[in-house]
Amino acid sequence: GGLAIPPAPNTNEPPTGGALDTERPQPPATDTNERGQGPRAALLIGSTLLGLTLYGAGVPTAFDLWDSDDGGRLAVGTYLLLAASSFFVPYLLTTETPPTWGQAAAALHGAYNGAWHGLFFYYVLAGGWENGEEMMGASVLTSLVEGIGGYALAGYTDMTAGEAHAMQTGTMLGAGLLAGTTLAIGGEEGDVDVFMWMAVLGILGGGV
């Protein structure tokens, strides 16, 4: 008499069918450089902010429109036009082919960092910062060139967002290290020319 205890199942044998015969679920594949509406939205937000700030105010300043005889109406109209264009132009250009994350990152890094790069470039070419209108024009122009150039370069080389971040970080570190080292090892107070030249060389070298 008594109850018969069934033998323990052999857990070493793989399942042969039924609900247990399933593969382990794999995490979805992620492509950090895929095209889509995510990178496009980031690009549009960044370009619109540039239009509302640097481009919208900088172009009228570069052409001295705020103090024009029309009471600044042309400056205000230019500001509104550029602010709107900074959204609609990239919106229309990316409708058929959305950007990758690499393109969005390279374009925005180039545009935002290009604004202060332009100030350094202007100083070494003009020998100073005496002309505010020309300074602002150089800042806007360099921002546009680096932004458009970054977008094109990222598309041509299939650059990822990480590579775009690294390139722009290199420009900042290069400028800071060369300019700071120059002052530390022998730059004299007020020797701005050497400081600016080292910063420009650091920007160019760090980007490469």
List keywords for this structure.
208 residues; mainly alpha; 6 helices
Q: Short summary of the structure?
A:
The protein has 208 residues and is mostly helical.
Radius of gyration: 28 Å
> Could you tell me how far the N terminus lies from the C terminus, measured between alpha carbons in angstroms?
87 Å
Uncertain stretches: none
| Number of strand segments | 0
Share in β-strands: under 5%
Q: Describe the main β-sheet briefly.
A: none
Q: How would you characterize this protein structure?
A:
The protein is an all-alpha fold. It is 67% helix and 0% strand. The protein has six helices and no strands. It is flat and about 100 Å long. The termini are far apart.
Topology:
Elements: H1 37-62, H2 73-93, H3 101-126, H4 132-157, H5 161-185, H6 192-207
